[in-house]
Amino acid sequence: MQLVVIGIGLIGGSFAKDVKKMHPDTHIVGIDKNESHLDEALELGIIDQKGGFDALASADVVYVSIPVNALTEELPKILDAVDDDTVVMDAGSTKGLICEAVKDHPKRRNYLACHPIAGTEFSGPSAAIHGLYEGKTNIICEVEKTAFKLQERALELFQEMKMRIRYMNPQAHDKHIAYVSHLSHISSFMLGKTVIEKEKNERDIFDLAGSGFESTVRLAKSSPDMWTPIFEQNKENVVESLEEYIQNLATFKQLLLDNEFEDVHREMNNTNRIKQILKGIPLTKS
Amino acid sequence: MQLVVIGIGLIGGSFAKDVKKMHPDTHIVGIDKNESHLDEALELGIIDQKGGFDALASADVVYVSIPVNALTEELPKILDAVDDDTVVMDAGSTKGLICEAVKDHPKRRNYLACHPIAGTEFSGPSAAIHGLYEGKTNIICEVEKTAFKLQERALELFQEMKMRIRYMNPQAHDKHIAYVSHLSHISSFMLGKTVIEKEKNERDIFDLAGSGFESTVRLAKSSPDMWTPIFEQNKENVVESLEEYIQNLATFKQLLLDNEFEDVHREMNNTNRIKQILKGIPLTKS
C-alpha cells in the first residue's frame, strides 16, 4: 500500500506508525512544510521518504493532519492531485468549513471527512506513538458523499486500529465538539493565565500546586498554531459554549457571595455524575 | 508510637498507612463519625482499633483529616483532650480560620497547622494509598507557635515520607491556595456542569469526549461535603480568583468576537510557559 501523510506530527505520525505496524509492506511518503519535522520523521522511521504533491497520484491513502486553516486551503489542491482510486482523509477538529471548502469539488467522492478524538497536549513527530487511536472515537461526516469502495478502505484501517466509528453531520459535529473539546482548552488556557498572572514567583506555583492543578491546566500546553484556527473556524459554537461556561461560573460566584452554601453543595453534587460519564472515556496511553 | 487518626479517609488513611510501614510497632486508633468508614479502615488494616476522644490523652501524634468546618469546631476540643506531650496536626485546605479558632487555646503549642498538597479526586478509606505524600509539599503555618520538641516529632515523620516543607503565614497560604487549588476545582465543576447541561444524551459525551476533557473535569468528581466548607472558609480569596478567571475568559471571548486571532494566539502562547511550571509538580501515583 502507498500511504502519503501530509503533516507528520503527533496525529499523522501516530497514524503512520500504526499502519506500518499492521501492514509492514506499506510505503509511507511524508509531506510537511516543516523540513525539520520531515527529517525527524525520517530518522525516527515514521516515514520511508520525504515527498511532494507529485506523490499523491500514486497513493492509495492520503492522510491529511495539518491545522484546520491549512486544511481548507490545501484540501482542494490535494484532491486535484490524487487519482480516482485514492481516498483522502483528514483529522481536523472542525468539520463545517472543511466540508464546505470541497463540497463542489469534482473529486469530492475521494474525500472522507474524519475527526479522530485522539491526541495529547504534545506535538511534532517525536510525540507520535503506537496505539494512539486504539479505543478512540472517529467521527465521520457526510459519509454518503464518499465513494463506497474508498469508505471501505478507510474503515478497514480504522477497524484494525480498534477505533469506534460515529457518523454525524458537520454542523452537529462542530456544535458538540465545541463543548466537549474546544471549551476545555479555553478553560485550561485561561486558568493557567489567571494563576501565572497572580503568582509572579513561578517557583511558588509548583511548590504549592498539586496534581489537581496539573490536570486542570494540562491542555494549556497545547499548540497555539493548531488551536487558533480551530477557534476561528468554530467561533460561533465556541463563543456560545464559552458564554454558558462564564454564566455558570458567575452564578457559582454569586452563590458564594450570598452565602448560599447549600446551593453551592448542590451545584457540585449535581455535577458529580460526571464520574459515570467519564468512565466511558478511553484515556490516552502516552 | 501511639497514633490517633481523626477522619480516616483518603488523607488520614494514607497517612496511617505510611506511618505503619515506617514504624510497624505503631498502634493506630481511628476516630470517625462515619461508622462504616471505621469498619472499612479496620478491615483494610489501616487502623488497629476504633476509638474515641479518650484515646487522645495517651497519643504521641494526632492526625486530624476532617472537613475544614469540622476542624474549626473539633480542634479546640481535641486540644482540650490531649496530653502536654502530644502533637496535633491537621491537613485542612484552609488555614486562616483554623489557626484563628485555636489562637488563644492553652494548648496552642501542641498544634502544628499543616496543609499537605496531596490528594486525589477519590475519598474514603478504600482510596487511601501508600506514598500519597511522597515528593509532595507540606505547607506549615505559624510554626513558631508550636512547641519545638513537637515540631521535631512531626517533621521527622514528614521527612521519612519524603515531603517538601514550606513555611507560610495562614493569610498567604489561603490566598495562594485559592489560585492554585480552589479555583481549579470550581473551573472543573462548572465545566462539567456546562457540558452536562448541553449534552442531554450523556452517551454522546463520552463518545465524543477525549482524554483532554477527562483531564480538565477530573476534579468535578471531588466530594461536595469536603469542598463546600473550604469555599466557605476561603470565600474572599476564592471569589477574587474566580473574578479574575471570569474576566480572562470574557476577554478571550471578546477577542474571538472581534476576530483578533493574533491576540488569541498570543494569549495561548503566553500561557504555554505553564509547561515549565508543571514540570515541577509531582503527580499522584494513584
UniProtKB/TrEMBL annotation, chains A, B:
Keyword tags: Oxidoreductase
EC number: 1.3.1.12
Keyword Oxidoreductase: yes
GO MF term list: prephenate dehydrogenase (NAD+) activity
Keyword Oxidoreductase: yes
All copies of domain Prephenate/arogenate dehydrogenase, residue ranges: 1-286
Gene3D superfamilies listed in its UniProt record: 6-phosphogluconate dehydrogenase C-terminal like domain, NAD(P)-binding Rossmann-like Domain
Class of enzymatic activity (EC top level): oxidoreductase
PROSITE patterns tied to this protein: PDH_ADH (PS51176)
Protein name as it appears in the record: Prephenate dehydrogenase
UniProt organism field: Flagellimonas algicola
